[in-house]
Amino acid sequence: GDNDSVLACMVAAVRWHGFTIDLAGLAELKARAVATVAAVPVNINAPRQVREYLRQFFDTMERLAPDVQKLEETTNKKVLERLSFFDDLVADETCLACNGTGRVRCGQTRIVAGQTGSGAGQTETGCLRCGQTGVLKAGPHPAVAPVKMILQAKAAKKEIELYDKLLIAGRFHASFVVIGTKSSRMAGADGLNPQGVNRHEEVRRQFPLKWGDRVLSGGDFNAFEMTIAHAVYGDDSLKRDLIQGIKIHAFAGEQLFPGHTWQQIKATDGTKHDLYTLAKSGVFAWTYGGDENTCVRNLQGVTLENARRFIAWLYARYPSIKTSREASQARFCSITQPGGRFTPMFWTEPAEYVETFLGFRRYYTLENAIVRELFRLAANPPGHWRCYEGSVVRSSKQQTILGATCSALYGACTSIQGANFRSEENTKIQSPGGEITKDVQRKIWDHQPVGVHELLVAPLNVHDELQCVCAEEYVEPVADTVRQTVEQYRAQVPLTGMTWYRRNENRAEK
Questions:
Q1: Rounded Cα distance, 217 and 499, in Å
Q2: Per-residue pLDDT, 273
């Protein structure tokens, strides 16, 4: 009778039936994606080809830049995203890749479709970096456009994989693991992740979901993560901003992207240069316990300096969150070094679990046991470790092999505990969101008659969005159920709310 058990049955029943999709529309989107992949002159699945192709857009000095050097290790999405923000050219300049000739020799060949460098060192070819003009114009670096082309092709390839599965099945058979994460939220499963479907409006329109004379209703929670954050931390400034409708993500974006006003950042929402979505992702990363390093790692083109200013601004604006997190860090990061680096480390027992305001507990028993053993090993290393002679330099300080080994063990301890702290902050927000969303789904499913029966309600949950295909006579009862269930959580999440649309044509209209 608990929500998770009931929803496990619901997911299976709804998946078996499936939802309606627009096959013609999906076929058209697939054709566009295929054309996007075909437009790239190299095989995007061959790192060597991608690397050789992109290297042609950098001169010898630029290839020494850290972001360009990472191409030698991998051509994954994060590396390419960093390169897509390569420094602009402030003025016209001579192309140093070809010394202004517009042509290159000596082992460099222009890579075109079907070529991978054959004839290198023998064939004189045009310089890709300057477009054979010998001059680079002020503005975006010449590597930016081809990097973005490859990124778009990689995204298109993933889209093709999704479209192929949907077109073969003919319907949308959404599968979920009900307790799919350690915070208890649902997760997509079985080779087609419903939560990973592109959220672009053009894609969402291809999911009418309803069938026959059924009606599609749906909606999503309003500022769900931030209203839960207020419930968790009780920050008065956050409450004020939410009530007044302040564009928190856009204001925070001013710190990430200096020189842009919050209005300008908000205006980029949904465009090719979407700074608003980047800022929104940064706020969510911070909400879930991330720091400036998280922002630099996950947000395209964000510098460490701007990320630090962004995090400092958020904590200054919402001081109660900062105070609460400092207390949590003390509970979960129990290893301290009061004397600073290269001084003795001290151990106190860390917290065993985090408990949300809805009573869900996430335990760290295994992680704490590992940290405890690593700390013991570092504090009392085996005697034979002292037999190894020699020294190493770590962070400009010379250490014995024993000292460096113990320092590395302590570093592993603090790294694990740091991860515990971040997951603890994540759980405090994610878990209540998952529990509330699952409760609404379960209450909707209670309208379905017991036993063998045609589907009269078919709920679908994607993050904080809920869709429900229902029979005509269930449209109003389902709407009332959603309203009443959400209202029941007002005591714990005072600012929560959900905008529910009774009749939609497809997922794009919620």
A1: 11
A2: 78
Both tokens of 203, joined, read: 């894609």
Rounded to the nearest angstrom, the gap between the alpha carbon of residue 415 and the centroid of all alpha carbons in its chain is 21
Q: pLDDT by residue (tens digit) across 343-382?
A: 788 888 999 999 999 999 999 999 999 999 999 999 999 9
The amino acid that residue 383 corresponds to is G
**Residue 497's pLDDT is what?**
93
**Tokens (6 digits) for 446:** 């209670």
Per-residue burial over 411-449, b = 16 or more CB atoms within 10 Å of its CB, e = otherwise: ebbbebbeebbbbbbbbbbbbbbbbbbbbbbbbbbebbe
Q: Would you say 470 and 457 are in contact if contact means Cβ atoms under 8 Å apart?
A: yes
With beta carbons less than 8 A apart as the criterion, state whether 201 and 166 touch: no
Burial class (CB in 10 A: 0-12, 13-18, 19+), 334: buried
**Cβ atoms within 10 Å, residue 483:** 14
Helices (H) and strands (E) in the chain, counts: 18, 14
Give the separation between CA 352 and CA 365, rounded to whole angstroms.
6
Say if residue 134's pLDDT is above 50.
yes
Q: What is the CA radius of gyration of the chain?
A: 27
